[in-house]
Write a structure and sequence with these properties.
The protein is mainly alpha-helical. The chain is built from 25 helices and three strands. The chain has two domains: about 450 residues, Hydantoin permease, CATH 1.10.4160; about 55 residues, no CATH class. It is about 70% helix and about 0% strand. Pfam families: Nramp.
Length: about 525
């Protein structure tokens, strides 16, 4: 792949295409170093892309996953959160190396290395992941506006406002890349301040937090805790974030003809990623700990009692049910509960934190969509047309869902969207691992034997293949139980397991037999 006078020579088919005007075309100069020893000035010059990348670890989907983790398993899944972040750091390092070494991001290389059908498949899967992520981010922002306005601004209006202010904020890069990075840094500081305030207010026990982080075991965890553990992986490791990071690091001026210069750039990019993901991990642990301390073990009736005692019309107590079922928290109910327990100020602080998380992640999601579409499809449209198309693809489904659902159903969608992220992840992992292991792409910077070994790819694919198979088998069990009243024998594979984790379906068998569902009728989702 050669670049001459802004013209790209495609090695795969020999065609020449003009390089597109896209985001982050500005290059930030890096102070020169003769001996390449550690320099704080050089680290500061490389600081920026990693923090933009880390925002995907702090979007509303992650925040809701954190609070649900604390609500259903207390501190017992903190080790899953830490482990997922470490795996995410490893994958972000690989994607960043692609951008630093080649000067091209993951989707651009995919366009030049893959035939038409595979790259279209990768583009579609990436867009599905971006749509799912955007739905979480936009819904989260709309919920925060709903809370901040005391339920005056409806959700669909919040979605429209989010779209408009996202378009406005996207113009910030016209004022300089470093100013844009400072803006994102301020949003992260807002999240540190707001979620940190909630942590200080609640004062969870440090010993319990440390135990949850260190001990990789989930004692007495039920089905909800198991599903939440899977959801954490989907929430933390975002497929489109690999494309984003590989594009962001291109903004630093690196002489790729000098091996030592590239090695030094890779080192600083990794250090910044460690710092950025360390900050995101602290925030995620804080949110989990707050709700592990406050909500774990509480029933709907107990939460309702707390809010009813305030006798404050600011709090939507009608959103809480009056029964003895475990309290199912989401970002909306969590905000109301914090207000009931610690005052209205705590609710507004929570909403501001969610707004910062949603707004920042919506913007980085937009950048991801741009890079993925421009790279895989090699679009030659003007910039505003590309932005409009990617925003319509991503935001359209969100607006449709918002208009047809209430806040209870919207905020509960995050579990399904996190699962979607898990299912889409292999389609970003495989090209990342393939290209970083390829000497034709990376040259002397191709992965070493430890990473290059096919064993790593097989392990990752096997893990997600297992989840695919388990999910499919679970659906088969549910349909056989609900539609045909078939008992799942213990002698079959996973028989006892499914009788335990699918207890709700088996408790419902007697009712189904007495009141069967006509096969011509649509299957009620509540029975699944």
């Amino acid at each position: 792949m050669k670049i001459e006078n802004n013209i790209i020579q495609d090695e795969r088919n020999g065609k020449k295409t003009k390089e597109l005007d896209t985001y982050f075309t500005e290059e930030v100069p890096v102070p020169h170093s003769d001996n390449y020893s550690f320099s704080w000035r050089r680290l500061l010059a490389f600081t920026g892309p990693g923090f933009l990348m880390s925002i995907a670890y702090l979007d509303p989907g992650n925040i809701e996953s954190d609070l649900k983790s604390g609500a259903v398993a207390k501190y017992r899944l903190l080790w899953v959160l830490v482990s997922s972040t470490i795996v995410g750091l490893f994958l972000q390092r690989l994607s960043a190396r692609i951008g630093v070494v080649t000067g091209k991001h993951l989707a651009e290389i995919g366009f030049r290395r893959y035939p038409k059908l595979p790259r279209l498949l990768l583009w579609i899967m990436s867009e599905i992941a971006i749509i799912g992520s955007d739905m979480q981010e936009v819904i989260g922002t709309a919920v925060s506006i709903y809370l901040l306005s005391n339920r005056v601004i409806p959700l669909y209006a919040g979605v429209l406002l989010t779209i408009l202010d996202t378009f406005s904020f996207l113009l910030l890069d016209k004022y300089g890349l470093r100013k844009l990075e400072v803006f994102f840094g301020l949003l992260i500081l807002i999240m540190v301040g707001t979620f940190g305030y909630e942590f200080v207010k609640v004062k969870p026990l440090a010993s319990d937090i440390a135990k949850g982080i260190v001990i990789p075991y989930c004692q007495d965890c039920d089905r909800d805790a198991l599903l939440q553990a899977v959801g954490i992986i989907g929430a933390i490791i975002m497929p489109h974030n690999l494309y984003l990071h590989s594009a962001l690091v291109k903004s630093r001026r690196v002489d790729r003809k000098i091996k030592e210069e590239v090695n030094d750039a890779n080192r600083y990019v990794f250090i910044e990623a460690v710092i950025a993901l360390g900050v995101s991990l602290i925030i995620n642990i804080s949110v989990t700990s707050v709700f592990a301390h406050e909500i774990f073990g509480k029933t709907n009736a107990e939460v309702l009692e707390v809010c009813s005692a305030t006798n404050n019309s600011l709090f939507d107590i009608d959103s809480f049910e009056n029964n003895t079922e475990p309290f199912e928290a989401d970002i909306y109910k969590a905000g109301i509960y914090m207000g009931c327990q610690f005052g209205a100020f705590a609710m507004y602080i929570w909403a501001i934190g969610i707004f910062a998380a949603g707004q920042s992640s919506t913007m980085t999601g937009t950048y991801s969509g741009q890079f993925v579409m421009e790279g895989f499809l090699n679009l030659k449209w003007s910039r505003w047309k590309r932005v409009l198309l990617t925003r319509t693809i991503a935001i359209g489904p969100t607006l449709a869902v918002t208009l047809s659902s209430d806040i209870q159903h919207l905020t509960g969608m995050n579990d399904y969207l996190n699962a979607l992220m898990s299912l889409m992840l292999p389609f970003a992992l495989l090209p990342t691992l393939t290209f970083t292991c390829s000497a034709r792409v990376m040259g002397v910077f191709a992965n070493g034997r430890v990473v290059k070994g096919n064993l790593l790819i097989y392990i990752i694919v096997a893990i997600f293949g297992f989840f695919y198979a388990l999910f499919t088998l679970y659906l088969v069990v549910c349909y056989s139980v609900v539609l045909f009243s078939i008992d799942w024998p213990n002698s079959l594979p996973f028989g006892q397991y499914f009788r335990e984790v699918s207890g709700t379906e088996y408790e419902y068998i007697d009712h189904i037999k007495s009141d069967p569902i006509p096969l011509s009728d649509p299957l009620p989702l509540s029975r699944l």
